[in-house]
Target: Sugar phosphate isomerase/epimerase
Amino acid sequence: MKLSFTTLGCPEWPLDKIISNASEYGFDAIDFRGLTGEMNIYKLPEFSEQVEQTLRKITDAGLHVSCFSSSVHLFSADNFEKNMQEVKEFSKLCRIFGTRYIRVFGGKISDNVSREMAVEQVAQHVSEMAKIAKAHDVKLLIETHDDWISCINMKKVLEQVDTEAVGVLWDVHHPYRMVGEQPEETWKTLGQWIEYTHVKDSRAGEGGGENFQYCLTGAGDIPLKDIYKLLVREGYQGYFTLEWEKKWHPELENPEIAFPQYVQYMRKLISEVTI
Model:
């Protein structure tokens, strides 16, 4: 089991603290989604003129960079050039750090656009961006997020793109919580393209759907144990990445609590789950 976490969960930590705590808590890797307030980390000295020093620090700690999580929203035509530039910058970092993946979002679909048109536009945009990524031996992963949570909608995009350069990041929380999609259905539809996961837990509120409360891993009702068992049975070799949304939900427990608790919960699954 390979464990990572996104830096969304520790928005106040400087780089050195991220690295030292990742090692102390027992993680294998870091998924960079911002650093000390800057989401496009390639703008920071640590990932530009000081990038070789950063690489040594991470490597010396026995860690890897599992993914660079971008802010790219594929549907947007207005931000296409900006998104292309972001993919270029993250692709360069991937090559330096030996990182295989860049996370992208499908994005919110405009009210006056049909699903069919949206699929075509997202497929077209990601295909252009994927050419850049592929030249750096990098893969773009579209997350099951925003208007692309449903496996059926995601599948329509994957069927139109170069899947050597485009895959799926399965946020195991959103399809189950938001649209009631069972994990087996998600895997049956998208499994051939799933190469990375985001893990988080929550408790359902009244009425279900988007009415829920994030909680520590294992304290909610997302079937995490069943999802882990499914992934192991199907031969999944990727990371199990904690996405603790502390930056967006400051009321959540601090990473000093949530991060080591996640490692303990996930490592315990190894002994509890039999295939």
